[in-house]
Amino acid sequence: NSAGSALRRSKFLDIDDELLDRAIDLNFKGVFYATQEILPHMLRKKFGVIVNVSSMSVKRGGPGATIHYAAAKGAVTTLTLGVAREFARDGIRCLSISPGPFDTNFQAASDTTPELAQKFLADVPMNRLGRPSEIAELVLFMCSNVCEFMTADTVYVNGGGGYR
After folding, report:
1. pLDDT tens for residues 83-116?
2. pTM
3. What are φ and ψ of residue 87, in 5° steps?
4. In the annotation, is 69 catalytic?
5. Which whole-number Å values give the CA distances from 120 to 30, 47, 124, 161, in the listed order?
6. CA atoms of 118 and 105, how far apart (whole Å)
């Protein structure tokens, strides 16, 4: 479950009902309903792994630009924990990944200015953006038999940044 976008950057007091509703619909409800849809199939098989994509913004809150997005992604992290704990005895694992800045279309779609993009990069000790293939490899690992005891966990992937 990896759909997500800040849709547009906005200061907290400028977030209107439309932006908040769109952020929750895309970033949380999409994950929620997709999870509800797949769980009955996994329950029949007594096996499954759900990997949700949250965001590093849940550690920072998105002040000044993306509180609406961070709040919706925080709900994804909480959903992951609840689903994992409710269905663990049924052979279903649920995990989430919280990426920091990655080289994807997310920043352009969120109207990220070049100055803000540089600020994000300056916060990453590895001095580069993440690559989508790095998330794909992590998903493969999470779904493999190598980590069958892992559930209800969130893995933060951010090049060491994102905690300021």
Report:
1. 999 999 999 999 999 999 888 877 666 667 788 7
2. 0.91
3. -110, 10
4. yes
5. 27, 38, 7, 9
6. 16
Place of tokens 């993306």: 66
pLDDT of residue 164: 61
Place of tokens 């052979």: 91
Q: How far apart (Å, rounded) are the C-alpha atoms in residues 112 and 1?
A: 23
**Token digits of residue 136:** 């794909």
Contact 56, 102 (CB under 8 A): no
Q: Do residues 150 and 142 touch, judged by C-beta distance below 8 A?
A: yes
The answer to whether 95 touches 52, Cβ cutoff 8 Å, is yes
Q: Which residues contact 70 (CB under 8 A, 6 or more apart)?
A: 55, 57, 58, 60, 61, 62
User: What single DSSP character describes residue 29?
Assistant: I
The catalytically annotated residue of 33, 69, 156, 163 is: 69
* C-alpha span between 40 and 102 (Å, rounded): 33
